[in-house]
Structure formats: structure tokens, C-alpha cells
Amino acid sequence: MPKLEEFLRDRSPLDAKQIRRIRELTSDWQLLADLSFADLILWVPLRKDFKTWPSGYVAVAHIRPTTAATVFNQDVIGDEIEWGARPRIDQALSEAEIIRDTQPEKFGEIFIKEETIPVILGDQVIAVISRHRNAELMRQPSRLELNYREVAHNVYRMVAEGTFPYTEHSELFDPAVRVGDGLIRLDINGAIIYASPNAKSAFSRMGWAGELEGNNLGQAARSVSVVKLEAHEEAIEVGLSGKALRRVEIENAGGTVDLLALPLLAGGDRIGAIVLLQNVTELRRRERELVTKDATIREIHHRVKNNLQTVSALLRLQSRRIEDPAASAALNEAVRRIASIALVHETLSSSAEASVAFDDVLDRLVAHALDLSPRMGQLRIARTGELGALDPRIATPLSLVVTELIHNALEHGLAESGNHLTITVGRGESGAEITIFDDGVGLPKGFSLAESSNLGLQIVRTLTENELRGNIDLVRTPAGTEARLTFPI
Fold first, then answer.
1. Does residue 336 share a domain with residue 415?
2. Contacts of 192 (CB under 8 A, 6+ apart)
3. Residue ranges of the Histidine kinase domain (predicted)?
4. Neighbour count for residue 198 (Cβ, 10 Å)
5. Alpha-carbon gap, residue 438 to 378, rounded angstroms
6. Nearest-angstrom CA–CA distance, 330 and 313
7. Alpha-carbon gap, residue 258 to 240, rounded angstroms
8. Do the Cβ atoms of 373 and 409 come closer than 8 Å?
9. Are 358 and 388 in contact, with CB atoms under 8 Å apart?
10. Helix (H) or strand (E) segment spanning residue 193
11. What does the alpha-carbon distance between residue 268 and residue 278 come to, in Å, rounded to a whole number?
């Protein structure tokens, strides 16, 4: 679907602020469609500037109600009409007034009643909403429908006065609540003058007995909430007074209800409010389960890290008791490899994320390797680039591979000559690359990674091919040795 700017490029004088206002309106206007049981179409005038008369309109948005059947089976976004083809739209634009009480017109097999509302920002009409309802469904409205329509008229008037959508705290609409989940209508003092059946059911499940209407909503909500802290009680009553856009949550053994209070204005004065309700009991239960699950996973990583450190300490003690230098060196290599795995688990145990910030791990691996090198004071290690967050299934084998490559460079390439080790990392859309270069003695002539008997390099090749599904190349250059590792993400 084309973007709003594409519809209007070189065809409308709307600036960035006005386009943003249209986006804010269409992000919140499901409320309008549901309250009025109507399809809504947003029309933007086509003209060079605000001083010239428009040649027509283009439909930039269309929404259907969830409270009634749609009257349009096909989307009309992108449709254009000429000036004069829809007089009510022209009238709403030119007069900056809501056009109501029109006669129904036949559309296919049904009669549709159209009303138009100007969308105003500052002193400019920047668009027009056309509202389309099935006239047959309007003849014998229920009490719910009458209240919804009265509220809808109030909100449409706010659109025409430029006070809806709310410019302050618009983030409170996310996640969105639906009219059908429950609606309460308040008078100017915060007393309930109407509660939909779903709203009554929500309070009944919370333990409220009796009628809601006639009671103060803030006091009713406070009485059923299990949280009895004085500050929280005050927050509930203030939040549900209807004086400002607020979101409040109440909870007890019967469940959890989310309430969004929306003040209704007329001419800048508050005339009441509506409160939309949503039963979020299951959502909160799942969130608590996720928090518990995340805490459990972090605890598991912490225990794995501790166990690996215990194994590492035992091997280190064993290596000190072995007189054979080769055996002692082998145990020390095992200690180093276990330590690199433990570092990944330590990172996961201290992070709220399910991924590994591998750049931090890499820095610690480099620092640890440098501490173990007998030429520590003479070596210079530089790292450039970033890998970002990686899945633990990639981070664990990758830490082992990088550890082996770094130690191979320090123990062989830079053991006697050379002073610089350069690590370059990079990440693309589908893969990553790590290059480790040292300016030491270089690889021996005829070297082949596939035929090398070096245990560390065998581990590197096996993990790269089997775990990382990548490729590893060790090449001799005129300046030293370069190990290039590539793998998909």
C-alpha cells in the first residue's frame, strides 16, 4: 500500500506537522468507527495551496467498525473524486462544520446514511472524514447504541474543534483497547451515567455487587482493588476521574482490568468522559510466567557458569600436580577453553535479554588472552567493528573459535617476533565476518588447515563447519598471518 506522502506528493500543501496529525488520527480512529457503528473514510483535498479551491479529494485511509457490519466490501484507499461529486464533503471542507441529518441514499441493496466531519489543525481544515452507516440498523437503537452514538457525536465534535486525537500522552493508547470490551460513561464529576454489559461483567468478576450507574468510578475501582496503599488509592481515583487522559489498572483475585479514561471536551470545556475497559487477566498471567521463566533461565546460566568455573579450578589444581610439562599444558588449554564457555554463560546470567552482547565478550576474551601471554607488555591488540547481539547458540561456539584463534596467534605467530594483533569484526544483513591478523613469523610453508594436527585448529575447523555453518581460512601474507572467519546469522 502506498505511503501517505506518496498519495499527496505534489498534490497537496500539507506540511509535515499536518501529515503527522493525520497519522495520529488514523492510529486512534478505530474508537470512532466502533462508537458510531460506521465505516470511516478519510479524504484529503487535492490542491496546490490553501488559498486555491481543491480540484477534488483522494481517500488516504479507510476503517471498518468491529461493532457492526461494514457497508463497503472493498477498500477505497487511493480512490479519487472530483469537486462537486460529493457535496457533503465539499460542505464540511468549506464551512469547517459537521454535516449531519442527511437523507439516506441507496448503495447496492442497502440505504446508507453519510455524514461528514472536518479534520482541523490550528485554523486549517486539512482533511474530511466521511462516515457511512446502514440506515436500516438505526431505526430502533438499543440503550447501548444510543449511548455509543452520543459519545461518538462528542468525539467527532472534538475532531472538528482540533482537540482529538489527544496530543498529550498518546502512548497511552498502546496497546489499544476496544469499545466492545467494555465502556463506561462518566459525567463531569466522575459519576457513572452508563456502563455497557461487558463493563458490568468486568466489575462483577472483580467482586462488585449491585449497579454501577450512579456510583463514582474511582471509588468503585478502589474498593475492588487488592492494593491498599494510600498513594495507589489516590492514583486510582484521580486517574479515573475523567479530568485527563489516564490509564489505570486494578487487580484482585478475580482478575486484572485495564481502564483507559478519555475526557470529552466541547469548546475547550470538559463535559464528561468515557472509560474503556479491557480484561487483561490472562495477559498479566503470561507476563508473570515470562518473568519467572526469564529469571529461571538466568539462574540456570549462573549455575552453569559456576559449575564450569569449578571444573576449571579442579583442572588447574590437577595441572599443578602433574610433572609432565606436556600434560600440564594440555590441562591448561582445557582450562582456557572452559573459561571461554563460562564467560558466555556469565553474560547471559547477568542480562535481561535472551541474546549475548558479543562485543563485550570479545573484549574480555582478548584481555584474558593478553594476560596469559608471556610477552604481555610488548604486545598491542586493536579491535575494530561491532557484532552486536548474538543468539547463544552462535555465541558459545564462536567464543571458543575466537579464543583458539587469538591464542594460536599469541602462542605461535607472536611468540617470538611481531608486536601487533588486529581483530576486525563486521556484521551484514545475513552474515558476519571476523578477521584476526598478526604480524608475527607467519604460517609454515605448505601449511594446510585441513591437515593440521594442532588440536586448537582442529577445534576451530570443527566448530566453524558444524556449529556455525561457516568457513575459516588461514592465509600467509607478506606482513604476517590472517585468519578469516565468516558465518551466517
1. no
2. 184, 185, 186, 212, 213, 214, 215, 216, 217, 220
3. 299-489
4. 17
5. 13
6. 14
7. 11
8. no
9. yes
10. strand 192-195
11. 28
157 and 8 part of one domain: yes
User: pLDDT category, 375, cuts 50, 70, 90?
Assistant: low
- Pick the last residue of a domain from 339, 354, 369: 354
Q: Calculate the CA 401 to chain-centre distance.
A: 34
**Angle, vertex CA 291, rays to CA 290 and CA 297, nearest 5:** 85
Tell me if 434 sits within 8 A of 485, measured CB to CB: yes
Alpha-carbon torsion, ordered 62, 68, 115, 1, to 10 deg: 0
**Same domain flag for 213 and 114:** no
CB 63 within 8 A of CB 180: no
Residues 6+ apart with CB under 8 A from 81: 43, 56, 57, 89
Q: What angle do CA 105, 97, 155 make, to 5 degrees?
A: 85
The answer on 84 and 14 residing in a single domain is yes
Report the sign of the C-alpha dihedral through residues 189, 192, 194, 195, in that order: positive
- DSSP letter at 235 equals H
Nearest CA-CA partner of 247 in 292, 280, 270:
280
User: Is 197 in a helix, a strand, or coil?
Assistant: helix
Q: Which amino acid is it at 9?
A: R
What count of other Cβ atoms lies within 10 Å of the Cβ of residue 375? 14
pLDDT, residue 84, reads 94
Which tens digit of pLDDT belongs to each residue from 376-393?
Answer: 556 778 888 988 888 878
Given pLDDT bands bounded at 50, 70 and 90, which one contains residue 75? confident
The kind and range of the H/E element at 424 are: strand 420-427
253 grid coordinates: 483475585
User: For the domain that residue 369 is a member of, what is the CATH number?
Assistant: 3.30.565.10
Shared domain check, 157 and 64? yes
Nearest to 342 by CA among 309, 310, 368, 296: 309
363 and 378 part of one domain: yes
The alpha carbon torsion through 87, 90, 91, 94 (nearest 10 deg) reads -160
Tell me: the pLDDT tens digits for 193-240? 999 999 999 999 888 988 999 999 999 998 888 765 455 556 888 889
CATH of the domain at 213: 3.30.450.20
Peptide bond into 104 cis (omega under 30): no
CA distances from 79 to 60, 258, 458 (A): 8, 38, 65
CB-based burial label for 367 (10 Å; 0-12, 13-18, 19+): exposed
Strands 39-46 and 56-63: antiparallel
Q: Which helix (H) or strand (E) holds 474?
A: strand 471-477
8 Å CB contact between 270 and 186: no
Residue 246 is inside which H or E element, if any? strand 246-252
273 and 255 belong to one structural domain:
yes
How is residue 215 annotated by DSSP?
Answer: S
